[in-house]
């Protein structure tokens, strides 16, 4: 499956979930689809496109952490953090702020203070 095919399917499910006002119309099929790519050698190639998808999508309940968070966090200390910060700089969303909050809970991470500072910038 190409990254574009993957994102197109996810986008369709997000739109359907919004139309139906049913988060599970997205979450359930997304878990299955993400399972297909998790173990591939190119799995990290899906990280940034997922962030772009979140940025342009309407706010829905993606889960806590849900299929996206579960997948993205597999790349913790492997480039995920930088992609998340880039996404927050481009188009912060409630969900990506939530993911940053999770990062800021890791007191052993040498960048935890940076994450907390960025997180504070989103507090109202």
Explain this structure:
This protein has 124 residues and is mainly α. The protein has one domain (3-120). The protein is built from seven helices and no strands. It has helices at residues 3-20, 24-38, 47-56, 66-72, 80-90, 94-104, 112-120. Helix 3 (47-56) packs parallel to helix 5 (80-90) and helix 6 (94-104) runs antiparallel to helix 7. The longest helix is centred in the first third of the chain and has 18 residues, at 3-20. The relative contact order is 0.12. The mean pLDDT is 94.
DSSP strand content: under 5%
Number of domains: 1
Distance between the termini: 41 Å
Q: Radius of gyration in whole Å, from Cα?
A: 14 Å
Structural class: mainly alpha
The helical percent reads: 55-70%
The whole-number mean of residue pLDDT values reads 94
Shape: globular
Give the uncertain stretches in residue-range form. none
Question: Major beta sheet, specifics?
Answer: none
Order of helical and strand elements: HHHHHHH
Query: DSSP helix count?
Result: 7
The total beta strand count reads 0
Briefly summarize what is shown.
By secondary structure, the chain is mostly helical. The protein contains seven helices and no strands. It has helices at residues 3-20, 24-38, 47-56, 66-72, 80-90, 94-104, 112-120.
Keywords, separated by commas or semicolons:
124 residues, mainly alpha, 7 helices, 65% helix
Topology overview:
Layout: H1 3-20, H2 24-38, H3 47-56, H4 66-72, H5 80-90, H6 94-104, H7 112-120
